[in-house]
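Input.
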Amino acid sequence: MKNLKKWIIILTILVIVIIAILIFILFFTKSSAKILHGVDEEGSDISYDVDTTLKEVTNRNNYYIVKNAVNKFYTYYYSMNTLEGDVYIMDEDAKESIKEIQLEYAQVIYDMLDNDYKEYAGITTSSDIISKLNPINEVVININKMYVSQRTVDTSIYIVEGTVREKITSNISNFKMMIEVDALNRVFSIFLQDYIDEKYPAISIGEEFNASENVNIEKNSNNVYDYQNITDETYCVDLISKYKEEILYNTELAYEHLDNEYKTKKFTNLEEFQNYAKNNVRKNVLLELNQYQKITSNDGYTLYVCLDQNGKYYIFKENAVMDYGIILDTYTIDLPEFVEQYNSSTDEKKVQFNIQKFFDAINDGDYAYAYNKLDQTYRNNNFPTQVDFENYMKTTFYAYNKLGYTSYEKNGDLYIYKMVITNSEDSTQTIEKQFVVKLLEGTDFVMSFEK
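Output.
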């Protein structure tokens, strides 16, 4: 009997504990839901701070949501218009099939466009899309600027400015889009340039951007997005791809994206940079990311240090997402981050850094820098002019030189390195040379080598 009472008490306590836990869970869930929907536990509205100023996008993942929406629009846009081909020689069944596929692509575009835009443009059905959009060939999209203004806690308006390059002709034109993103429901809607030009002809960065559009985006199968966490590697691959697109097809834009200090010291003007681009076309066509490093500066900016398959540096000094000043070597200007690394290194490592700089210049075709790093007596005796030096380097070394250090010794203030230089394009081709380096003040140095 006593045991029965004992078990009844235990079961009663367990029931009370379980009920208490269930009440707590239900209350917490209800409370959280209210907060999520903008009210507190008592049903009063919660006030949120919404930043409606237009500013550059600094959230990488949000940038890619918008970028992917732009790419999706253009993918269906040119696909819709490149289906017809030699339609005049097709039979009626083939023509009808092409028309059906076109309408399917047009429906995707229709679903991505914002309802306010469709009303503005007089688009009532998907077939209107075909007549509204002028035909284009396959294109490459390059986003130059992206700005954001918050609408509500969950929705934001993005302004995208960029270029469209037709692959067949390489003709480049500018484009502008406005994209609204609902982060809660993970949907987006698109406004095209004609709407922006008429409704918002003067958009000012840093000022409030009060868009008048309806914040409710109707969800459909074509305007949803998946949230992605963009890795540093993906980002660096895209940084290199963006530079490659610009240096090959839009050198003026590539020139604009150079770091200001670097641009001033490296290139006299745009024409000199364009000559640099022409002389390195083959390198740029083959350009691929091989290694990367992310460095957070004490001054608040981020450096993405990228190396290609030949060991050439591409340093992106980031201001906002995909907004940067690019530096194309490590020797033209002294970046504080590199100087700090240099100063904390041993003398042996410093010499290696400097020999690498010398050959970075040779690989880059910057013979003026390399020539000025030669010891003056050695230079006067062996290469009276820069032309002499340039001719020797072109006929003795390779287009892409990879360094290998075999041994070194120190003689007073001179460091003597025996090295094997390998042709990066053909590892069976090598040159053995001895280099003599003298460290000077700061990061400066002079050198000589056996002929």
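The mean pLDDT is 88.
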